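Render Tonsoku-like protein in 3D.
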Amino acid sequence: MRTRLYLNLGLTFESLQQTALCNDYFRKSIFLAEQNHLYEDLFRARYNLGTIHWRAGKHSQAMRCLEGARECAHTMRKRFMESECCVAIAQVLQDLGDFLAAKRALKKAYRLGSQKPVQRAAICQNLQHVLAVVRLQQQLEEAEGRDPQGAMVICEQLGDLFSKAGDFPRAAEAYQKQLRFAELLDRPGAERAIIHVSLATTLGDMKDHHGAVRHYEEELRLRSGNVLEEAKTWLNIALSREEAGDAYELLAPCFQKALSCAQQAQRPQLQRQVLQHLHTVQLRLQPQEAPETETRLRELSVAEDEDEEEEAEEAAATAESEALEAGEVELSESEDDADGLTPQLEEDEELQGHLGRRKGSKWNRRNDMGETLLHRACIEGQLRRVQDLVRQGHPLNPRDYCGWTPLHEACNYGHLEIVRFLLDHGAAVDDPGGQGCEGITPLHDALNCGHFEVAELLLERGASVTLRTRKGLSPLETLQQWVKLYRRDLDLETRQKARAVEMLLQAAASGQDPHSSQAFHTPSSLLFDPETSPPLSPCPEPPSNSTRLPEASQAHVRVSPGQAAPAMARPRRSRHGPASSSSSSEGEDSAGPARPSQKRPRCSATAQRVAAWTPGPASNREAATASTSRAAYQAAIRGVGSAQSRLGPGPPRGHSKALAPQAALIPEEECLAGDWLELDMPLTRSRRPRPRGTGDNRRPSSTSGSDSEESRPRARAKQVRLTCMQSCSAPVNAGPGSLASEPPGSPSTPRVSEPSGDSSAAGQPLGPALPPPIRVRVQVQDHLFLIPVPHSSDTHSVAWLAEQAAQRYYQTCGLLPRLTLRKEGALLAPQDLIPDVLQSNDEVLAEVTSWDLPPLTDRYRRACQSLGQGEHQQVLQAVELQGLGLSFSACSLALDQAQLTPLLRALKLHTALRELRLAGNRLGDKCVAELVAALGTMPSLALLDLSSNHLGPEGLRQLAMGLPGQATLQSLEELDLSMNPLGDGCGQSLASLLRACPLLSTLRLQACGFGPSFFPSHQTALGSAFQDAEHLKTLSLSYNALGAPALARTLQSLPAGTLLHLELSSVAAGKGDADLMEPVFRYLAKEGCALAHLTLSANHLGDKAVRDLCRCLSLCPSLISLDLSANPEISCASLEELLSTLQKRPQGLSFLGLSGCAVQGPLGLGLWDKIAAQLRELQLCSRRLCAEDRDALRQLQPSRPGAGECTLDHGSKLFFRRL
């Protein structure tokens, strides 16, 4: 018991930041636990002490404590506890920069397992990060001395990786190293500008905004002449200066230059963006200039600006291309095993997924293979997209991670016009590629793929015919090898084309003019010999240490008109390599440095042409013999039979049962010419992503003649993915007429054999059995929803699941999000079917891409319908009239909690709102959670009025607890909590609220039920909060019976140097509270007291208190307004004393309030002269004045014509003002 008591005491003193006592009690707890073998308590003590040392920066002590805790967990055989220790150790090691040791700790944590799926996911994510860092650091060590270009790319990847993980100092260090390499290599200014953008973004994340400005200015120098980029850079400079707190005089020129450049670039959308930021800054710093900016914003018409429409289309195309890039990576990852960490990631240290690029420049964005936007456009054959990118300044010769340039990609895929355009704009025609490209030039690439028109163009533009690959092949030898391999499959026209190109190459090699005007025509048919063709299996993915497939095995033949010519196999980075065998962590760490991984090989074109082949008449080709059919089928089995073993185990998707054992090979007399491949899956319309590098995916369709044949029993369930059909689109030709190809562009859906009429008679079920019910957990921000997927005739898609999650979130929070779903980091495509990508009880993460925000009136009506609450007519009028303006008021409507909830939900994400007034309603404590949720979406809110809302101490506590750690109320300047029954117990909550509002300048706490014990019971918290409130200018504590002791402690904690307005009306505990003025006098006598307005009305003050106050007036020259009204014991003597004291000050008072006091006439003309000289405004009760005073006042006005006095004598009140 004492062991746990010491542990709790240590934790308590740690929370109080008393380090010495904390360590003492922890040591006592550890000693007792060791003596008595209390391993669980020993684990807790060591683990907590280790984390405390880690947070304090004592890494060596933290490691010792955490290692001791891990040993305790190991002794108790508590795997989950040991896993937690390994994770904490890895965090310490990462802080120390030892990522290799951190990798070992995280691997051990992963193998030990985690108690919660969230913890397991965090371990996987952290391990992926560490593996990537280790791999890149090893590559950087190898490349620094011998390959500065490669080292520069690796530094960039390291910087992006650290930035993504939030390790901004290391990211900045990596970018600085990248910049040094770029300057060493004398890279173009555009590339160095991108690095400066990354550095500026990172320094901004580190709150070093002036450093960010320096790098933006350097980017501006390097991008001189590009007005569009200059506009964006000037905007970034302005925003960084704003974050740094610079004056408006420094911000305005930056915004104006950004606007001028955006106008020159003719980008209305960018102009509006600049004006919107400028308008926000002007509202805060220069309000008088804001209307002009707002007028200019309105003048920018969206609908009538054709240039802007083109810009929007261009941006949409960019977004679509980027979405495609991300989708290619992430959709493939969604098919991984549900364990979350593949063996390849665990053993081969291969980081899967997309290493997100910094958003400093759009040209710097790459997918997981290192392909830029230009790479993707060249691969997809989008000529207009390529032209737009180059015109906008995209670099022409960037390399992907394997070393291929966009020109390589265009030649590989045979896009002639794109090749022509790139060469016209200066693309490197003889680029041999990077480290993983084996010296292949664009000419080698085009010849190796049979793109003779492209090869001709390259020769015309001076491509070298003497350069050789690392295997020693010249372009001529590459072509000869291609012809030799495919000679049986080439028709006459293709042979003539190949011969013509061969003659061109020979002429160029001999020094003659290689140009030839011979016209080339695409053949209309192709021949196919199954015995001499390449195997029908999919192109194998090379192992990580392989370089490139032999060129001779990658060629293809020409195709008939209308058929796209897919590209040849070429080394690409593999996303899912073969799983390696398990080994110990020590063995893994001792492995050699990892080589750059390579992309997925593109499929052999000859194999792809099989799907497009249409058999000729019977006279041209006779029926195949039985042995030939069997040989073809065996070739097919070699290609697809190992798909399941390569892809790893997966849960069966169908429920079928074999009636009898079946032979592996089907005799040719049984159904070989029909639908011989069966998929035991429900019929779906799910589209698979097209394989990379293909033009028109051609899939086999069911033949019309297969309906009448006898259906045989299904031997086993469907193999999860048929790699042969999906990767290369190469179905097997078993004989003439056995398979018919689909027309180009048809959806790639898997074939399912149609059941025949005899199958039901044989005892086979008419349809597949219903799968077990699926329930999916969807995490939307802080909410987790369990969503059942009902069985129906149409299988639900991922888009349906996202819509269900959005509706549930709307029911809970009142906001309707637009969601994208991720499973273990992989993006789920909306069109995919749920059973294809998810299993029951899987948890997916929903990311909010945008919000559905109709007009405020519609939002309010929809919120009422969602909550089953009737619409309040006055609230409806308020939202209709005020809409989405800068202020919203719903005061004095007496709305209860049920009526306020839909209003608060409707106001969510009203980001422009500056003032929210809800005074005079019945918010209560139960509705504060809705209020906090709404305030969290109003970053610009400057005024919040919650007065008279039945808000109690619990409600204030909820309000205070919901604000810290968020951006909520960071801009709040005025808060009114008056007339709420807060009581004395809310001091801690009020202190937390003050800390959560750093810009608060006005705080009103009138009539909140504070008593004598309010401040003393929370003096430490409240005193610290008030002292830290540097911007507090106005504080009202009126109508709270504080009494002299509580008032003294309150005034002692107030910041005398900044507070300007203090209201203390009716704070006396009673008539006998004679010492009430002492703390006020001490406060006014403080050095540097800046108080200008003081209210002391209704505090039972008399002439003695006023005489003492007069002595303080000379000590506080800043005081210019004094309200002593409603103190009936103050007489005319006090007025005379005040006027005499004011004569000794440099200035009088702008306001003196004595209404409700015992000032009795006649005052005399001399006293009225003093009043006119020392006071600008006076308020008296005229009930005690006589007619002589009124006459004296009337005589006073004509005698001083220049002073401009005015009086108001109405009823029992007399007001005098000197204008």
